[in-house]
């Protein structure tokens, strides 16, 4: 996965994740069990990463210090408080970290991945998803065309290619290359680009 991950090199780790703001939809490091991205109503992003932490020489204190150093370095280059570490949890030989991000661009840059949020009109012209020709209607389960899925004015489009859970602060209308896990939660394998069309909560 092309992103900042918990890199197990001795006691040094590299992590990344998302979120920002005091929205109802939120995750914590103690609660998450899998890599997750949360797109909130105000366009801020939160995400988690969960990795093995099963060596005697791994140190939570050193992990946390390293993450804070990476966050500080990013913010010094890109603007104050663009990223914050929300929480960290180590238990049962697993390490979980949750980050808050100012927006999807900070999430993408910090993690070194392709992820973006577009309008439907922008998505229709976006080269990275021209190959996505079929979508699933989240309500009916029916297959619809790309043009139908991207026809709703005012809807928002998430484009991402990562193996993770996707949580939306709104109502999912259509999606491609993902499986519906529960209401407004999708599971993406990362093998192909995932596109999610949704309406934000008012």
From TrEMBL:
The protein here is known as Lipoprotein
Query: Looking at the record's lineage, which domain of life comes first?
Result: Bacteria
User: Origin organism of this chain?
Assistant: Anaerosporobacter mobilis DSM 15930
């Amino acid at each position: 996965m092309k992103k900042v991950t918990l890199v197990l090199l001795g006691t040094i780790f590299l992590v990344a994740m998302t979120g920002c703001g005091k929205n109802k939809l939120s995750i914590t490091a103690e609660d998450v069990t899998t890599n997750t991205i949360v797109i909130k109503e105000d366009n801020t992003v939160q995400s988690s990463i969960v990795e093995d932490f099963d060596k005697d020489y791994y140190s939570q204190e050193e992990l946390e210090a390293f993450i804070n150093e990476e966050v500080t370095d990013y913010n010094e280059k890109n603007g104050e408080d663009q990223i914050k570490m929300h929480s960290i949890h180590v238990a049962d030989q697993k390490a979980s970290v949750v980050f808050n991000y100012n927006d999807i661009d900070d999430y993408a840059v910090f993690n070194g991945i392709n992820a973006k949020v577009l309008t439907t009109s922008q998505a229709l012209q976006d080269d990275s998803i021209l190959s996505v020709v079929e979508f699933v209607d989240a309500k009916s389960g029916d297959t619809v065309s790309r043009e139908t899925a991207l026809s709703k004015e005012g809807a928002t489009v998430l484009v991402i290619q990562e193996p993770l859970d996707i949580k939306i602060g709104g109502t999912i209308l259509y999606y491609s290359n993902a499986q519906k896990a529960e209401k407004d939660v999708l599971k993406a394998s990362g093998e192909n680009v995932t596109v999610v069309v949704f309406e934000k909560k008012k």
